[in-house]
């Protein structure tokens, strides 16, 4: 897995969960997160926050499954949106 692989994957899909990317790249969520942080630092990727309790309060969701990243290409990564978790979460 290299930075260009992450770029291609996210730019084709628009957005994806950390868990999906870790599965796709057969890597740990922490390793993928590290690569995403490089792109975020360059203003190319934005991390979306779900409800703060999602993934921690009921323990039904894997925290990596509610950590969502979006490819934004040009621009800044300083705007963070809060998105709603799935209805069953």
User: Any guess at the CATH architecture?
Assistant: Orthogonal Bundle
Order of helices and strands: HEHHEE
Query: For the residues shown, what is the average pLDDT?
Result: 78
Please indicate the count of domains.
Answer: 1
Apparent shape? globular
Helix content: 25-40%
Number of strands: 3
Proportion of residues in β-strands: 5-15%
Q: Roughly how many Å is the radius of gyration? A: 13 Å
The first-level CATH class is given as Mainly Alpha
> Biggest sheet, in brief?
3 strands, antiparallel
Predict the CATH topology: Arc Repressor Mutant, subunit A
Order of strands side by side in the largest beta sheet? 1-3-2
Low-confidence parts, pLDDT < 50 over ≥5 residues? 75-80
Distance between the termini: 30 Å
Helix and strand composition category = alpha+beta
Name the features:
Arc Repressor Mutant, subunit A, single chain, 12% strand, 35% helix, globular
Explain what this protein looks like in three dimensions:
This protein has 89 residues and is an alpha+beta fold. The protein has a single domain, classed as Arc Repressor Mutant, subunit A, CATH 1.10.10. The chain has 3 helices and 3 strands. The chain has a 3-stranded antiparallel beta sheet with strand order 1-3-2. Helix 2 packs across helix 3. The longest helix is centred in the middle third of the chain and has 13 residues. It is globular. About 7% of the residues have low confidence.
């Amino acid at each position: 897995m290299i930075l260009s692989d992450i770029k291609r994957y996210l730019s084709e899909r628009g957005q994806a969960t950390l868990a999906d990317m870790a599965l796709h790249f057969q890597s740990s969520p922490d390793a993928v997160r590290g690569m995403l942080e490089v792109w975020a630092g360059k203003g190319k990727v934005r991390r979306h926050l779900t409800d703060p309790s999602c993934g921690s309060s009921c323990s039904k969701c894997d925290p990596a499954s509610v950590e969502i990243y979006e490819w934004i290409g040009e621009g800044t990564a300083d705007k963070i949106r809060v998105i709603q978790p799935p209805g069953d979460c």
